[in-house]
Amino acid sequence: ETGVTQSPTHLIKTRGQQVTLRCSSQSGHNTVSWYQQALGQGPQFIFQYYREEENGRGNFPPRFSGLQFPNYSSELNVNALELDDSALYLCASSLPGVSGNTIYFGEGSWLTVV
Amino acid sequence: ILNVEQSPQSLHVQEGDSTNFTCSFPSSNFYALHWYRWETAKSPEALFVMTLNGDEKKKGRISATLNTKEGYSYLYIKGSQPEDSATYLCAFSGGSGYSTLTFGKGTMLLVSP
């Protein structure tokens, strides 16, 4: 158990729809990152939140957006879904600022866009 | 663009065999190298976080080494067991922040009884 929980575990959406994925970070971890893992690839960094502010972003379009709440839980929102958005979305939590910190992952949310 | 490469892509060994995987990463702007073990339908399990050149870490039958000057890390499994079957991911952190990871595609290990 990593202490990082994600919901939902699986969902199916139609192209053009919007989706919200949720993540509860490990207790005390104020840094949350989101990753997308497409088939055959390693996880790709989407963005990171630290103390409710976006703190870095990967090569993803603006229709990928997020939020972090005062309790450090986080949401990933994807608008105007495309077929290529079908992937496993992973949430990771950590303490900031130290390179040797362990980063903990949830089990992920499987998104299928049809 | 940061490039993290893992080899081999997959590996099939017999129970009791020892095995090793390679992860290569950029040697500049290095913060840390992370190894994860990932079983299907579970969350990636953190094995090691390595920060210093020459680091060697061990956890049971699994160990890892780090060479930051040449940009590679090795993961070793001694006496593989069927429960070691999983995908092993390495991830580089550097430049973009301590906790932003760039992953390789992983090495899928299958250990047969």
Supply database-style keywords.
heterodimer, A: 114 residues, mainly beta, 7-stranded mixed sheet, 4-stranded antiparallel sheet, 11 strands, B: 113 residues, 6-stranded mixed sheet, 5-stranded antiparallel sheet, 0% helix
Structural account:
The complex is a heterodimer of chains A (114) and B (113). Chain A has 114 residues and is mainly β. In chain A, 0% of the residues lie in helices and 50% in strands. Chain A is built from no helices and eleven strands. Chain A has strands at 5-7, 10-13, 19-24, 31-37, 44-50, 53-57, 64-68, 74-78, 87-94, 104-105, 109-113. In chain A, the strands form two sheets. In chain A, strands 2, 4, 5, 6, 9, 10 and 11 form a seven-stranded mixed sheet that branches. A four-stranded antiparallel sheet of chain A has the order 1-3-8-7, with no helix packed on it. Chain A is globular and about 40 Å long. The mean pLDDT of chain A is 93. With 113 residues, chain B is mainly beta. Chain B has no helices and eleven strands. In chain B, strands 2, 4, 5, 9, 10 and 11 form a six-stranded mixed sheet that branches. A five-stranded antiparallel sheet of chain B has the order 1-3-8-7-6, with no helix packed on it. The model of chain B has no long low-confidence stretch (mean pLDDT 94). At the A-B interface, β4, β5, β9 and β10 of A face β4, β5, β9 and β10 of B.
